[in-house]
Specification:
Elements: H1 4-18, H2 24-30, E1 44-45, H3 54-58, H4 79-100, H5 105-121, E2 129-132, H6 141-153, E3 158-163, H7 166-174, E4 183-188, H8 198-203, E5 209-214, E6 221-222, E7 245-247
Parallel strand pairs: 1-2, 2-3, 3-4, 4-5, 5-7, 6-7
Bound molecules: iron/sulfur cluster.
Length: about 250
């Protein structure tokens, strides 16, 4: 069992490549659609912040980065946005059930259809970058495996995924999972103004894994979006595989 994610990664990529690609619109419908935030230079996929596991608990912890989570306010409360996030969320149990039954070829193929559809749905964005989860978070190591497989299918796109779920990332890596060269996993430090724990530092030694903080002046990377009206413009620091970034509290 130890290297299960290494074997599954190879199998899922092979099966997803064998799936007949859907037309763009059908692919987007299959994954519940994508989003475009005003800040980021590329599209993203999101889930309801209320479905975060650790994040939902941290929302009631004073001084945590989730206490004033931007994804529980403003445009994220518009009914059309809420229903789109719920639509994407409702696809996940079926995805996890299918991918989790890796000895059942038909089930795995069904899960790989989501992976193939997501790879197609991304299309050809102008900036060739994609953010996974501008709202919401990883639900399991298998969820991370699904996204790393999407990234393996789209080597022309750089992927960034932030997560509070260091445990899911650790189990993925311990199980032989790896982050492809066009992807970075950013482990989020839970408390405002704090640096990474020893556990986060240890995970950040893996290729393609680094961390983010909020309000940490000593971080090597600092987000300057809020000096540019809340836009990334030409900055791509979040997609850098080795530089930790701190964001201002917003
Ligand atoms: S660090 Fe750069 S890429 Fe990341 S959010 Fe800030 S401006 Fe955007």
């Amino acid at each position: 069992m130890r290297f299960i994610y290494e074997d599954l990664s190879l199998a899922f990529e092979r099966i997803a490549r064998e799936v007949d690609p859907l037309p763009l619109k059908a692919a987007r419908d299959r994954v519940g659609g994508l989003t475009n935030t005003s800040k980021m230079p590329g599209p993203s996929a999101n889930l309801p912040a209320s479905r975060c596991q650790l994040g939902a608990q941290l929302q009631s912890v004073p001084g945590s980065v989730c206490e004033s989570c931007y994804a529980t306010k403003n445009a994220y409360l518009f009914p059309v946005v809420v229903s789109a996030m719920e639509r994407r969320w409702e696809l996940l149990p079926g995805l996890f059930k299918s991918l989790g039954r890796w000895q059942d070829a038909e089930q795995v193929r069904h899960g790989c259809e989501w992976i193939s559809a997501m790879a197609t749905a991304i299309g050809k964005p102008r900036s060739e970058v994609f953010r996974i989860h501008d709202s919401g978070d990883l639900q399991s190591p298998l969820h991370l495996l699904a996204w790393t497989t999407v990234a393996r299918l789209r080597r022309d796109i750089r992927f960034w995924i932030p997560t509070r779920e260091a445990g899911h990332v650790r189990r993925f890596l311990d199980g032989g999972g790896s982050v492809p060269p066009n992807m970075v996993v950013r482990l989020s430090v839970p408390m405002v103004g704090e640096g990474p724990s020893e556990a986060i530092r240890a995970l950040s030694r893996h290729d393609g894994v680094t961390w983010t903080a909020v309000g940490l002046e000593t971080s090597p990377g600092q987000c300057g979006a809020y000096q540019r009206g809340g836009r990334c413009d030409s900055c791509r620091l979040c997609w850098d595989r080795s530089t930790p970034v701190s964001y201002p509290l917003h």
